[in-house]
Amino acid sequence: MRASINRPPTPDAEEDPPQKELSLREIINIKLIESGEKEKLMELLRERLIECGWRDEMKALCRAYARKKGRKNVTVDDLVQVITPEGRASVPDSVKAELLQRIRSFLVSSSL
């Protein structure tokens, strides 16, 4: 390692950077992406949320917020910040349970 008074030490070219150990959540996410299962789960979630009316509910909340604040005074970031907690809390338990079951089945079949 070379050091300087004004800057932190610079690693030498021969030294390998430390390997970050992946968390279980990160490993599962990688496996879901590699297998294509994540995309299938996302599509299933979209379908279920549309079927149960959740999407229309969120659209109505966004429109109401935009009317309240004035259409010109609302940004996408504002909407996301205001609507996200409500949206997450209002996802039906049946949809959550179905997705969780599909993820568990995937984990069993991929022996993780």
UniProtKB/TrEMBL annotation:
It holds the Pfam family EnY2. It is found in: Nucleus, Nucleoplasm. GO terms for biological process: chromatin organization; mRNA export from nucleus; protein transport; transcription elongation by RNA polymerase II. It comes from the Eukaryota. Residues 1-20 are annotated as: Disordered. The keyword Ribosomal protein does not apply. Its main location: nucleus. Keywords: Activator, Chromatin regulator, mRNA transport, Nucleus, Protein transport, Transcription, Transcription regulation, Translocation, Transport. HAMAP family: ENY2_Sus1. Component of the nuclear pore complex (NPC)-associated TREX-2 complex (transcription and export complex 2). Component of the SAGA transcription coactivator-HAT complex. Within the SAGA complex, participates to a subcomplex of SAGA called the DUB module (deubiquitination module). PANTHER family: ENHANCER OF YELLOW 2 TRANSCRIPTION FACTOR (PTHR12514). This is Transcription and mRNA export factor ENY2. It comes from Ananas comosus. The lineage of its organism: Eukaryota, Viridiplantae, Streptophyta, Embryophyta, Tracheophyta. The gene is LOC109707496.
